[in-house]
From TrEMBL:
Residues 4-255 form the ABC transporter domain. One of its GO terms (cellular component) is plasma membrane. GO terms for biological process: D-alanine transmembrane transport; L-alanine transport; L-isoleucine import across plasma membrane; L-valine import across plasma membrane. It holds the Pfam family BCA_ABC_TP_C. Residues 260-290 are annotated as: Disordered. This is ABC transporter related protein. It comes from the Bacteria. Keywords: ATP-binding, Nucleotide-binding, Transport. GO terms for molecular function: ATP binding; ATP hydrolysis activity; L-isoleucine transmembrane transporter activity; L-phenylalanine transmembrane transporter activity; L-valine transmembrane transporter activity. The lineage of its organism: Bacteria, Thermotogati, Deinococcota, Deinococci, Trueperales.
């Protein structure tokens, strides 16, 4: 049975069809990347899976059960956690506190047991603390050193991203949705985060769906790559298959490039295509529903 399954998922905003009939399957232990030019619907898909948006039609199943209509916190409870393109951390709290807070939904206590600090309450606190450190340890001294107790507002952008990933892991999730995990990272840091994502799967046992613009990261770790364009899935396969797919080349580089048979490895050019400002291409015919 697939861990996550999307069938015919549609979502429109006013007259704009943000996702059209999207099918997606994710098996346990896979790392799958979603790529596509700006405005292709990648973040919308994450928002649909995590219950921020409800699909207009279609079904989303997690471990065999439909999660359509569940609230985001209920979806976290089932085992799906995410990071955000624009980070959502409590900047006045420390790295450790941010990761501890993400486990609060699991705390089984009453107001009285918290005030009295009963043995049961303290045991749960200890377990949460251990789990937080275990997840933060994936990032090594970047977060585990003196940084553990630093408020998030003093951290670099890259360290904030790492903290968000540790926070998602600590929720107790089995499936992690990572939205541009390497954004704001230099090539050395990107290389490092690529290795960490692989370890999250291999050692942490997580299944991972990621949206990413850096093609070297996508090529390096993806078992499968799904390409969206104007809300539709236009290709799916290995990294090599999709970057050589004429529909993908056309989506990024235009019809001319596709006709010229530019089917070599497009890593650099694809990356350039991603740097277009959001919405730069305008809406194609057929996407606007009214
Ligand atoms: N809440 C919203 N209200 C109206 N339109 C939206 C909303 N969210 C997304 N859209 C539109 O839906 C389309 C898909 O947006 P989405 O953010 O999912 O794309 P994306 O692939 O994540 O883009 P990027 O790579 O720039 O982050 C865009 O045209 C966007 O403007």
């Amino acid at each position: 049975m697939a861990m996550l399954e999307l069938r015919g998922v549609n979502k429109a905003f006013g007259g704009l069809q943000a996702t059209t009939n999207v099918d997606l399957t994710l098996n346990e232990g896979e790392i799958v990347s979603i790529i596509g030019p700006n405005g292709a619907g990648k973040s919308t898909l994450f928002n649909l899976i995590t219950g921020v948006y409800r699909p207009d039609s279609g079904d989303i199943r997690f471990e065999g059960r439909s999660i359509v209509g569940l609230k985001p916190n209920q979806i976290v409870d089932l085992g799906i956690a995410r990071t955000f393109q624009n980070l959502r951390l409590f900047t006045n709290l420390s790295v450790l506190e941010n990761v501890l807070i993400s486990q609060h939904h699991k705390l089984r206590s009453t107001w009285l047991s918290a005030v009295l600090r009963t043995p049961g309450y303290r045991r749960q606190e200890r377990e949460m603390h251990e789990r937080a450190l275990q997840k933060l340890a994936f990032f090594g001294p970047r977060l585990m050193s003196f940084r553990l107790h630093q408020p998030v507002y003093v951290l670099s952008y890259a360290n904030r991203r790492r903290t968000e990933m540790a926070r998602a892991m600590a929720t107790g999730a089995k499936l992690l949705l990572l939205d541009e995990p390497s954004a704001g990272m230099n090539p050395k840091e990107t290389n490092e985060i690529t290795g960490i994502i692989r370890r999250m799967r291999d050692e942490g046992g997580y299944t991972i769906l990621l949206v990413e613009h850096k093609m070297n990261l996508v090529g390096e770790i993806s078992d499968r790559v799904v390409v969206l364009d104007y809300g539709q899935k236009i290709a799916e396969g290995s990294y090599k298959e999709v970057v050589n797919d004429p529909r993908v080349i056309e989506a990024y580089l235009g019809k001319k490039a596709a006709e010229e048979g530019k089917t070599a490895d497009l890593t650099d050019e694809l990356h350039t295509g991603f740097d277009e400002p959001s919405g730069a291409r305008g809406a194609p015919e057929g996407r606007v529903t009214r």
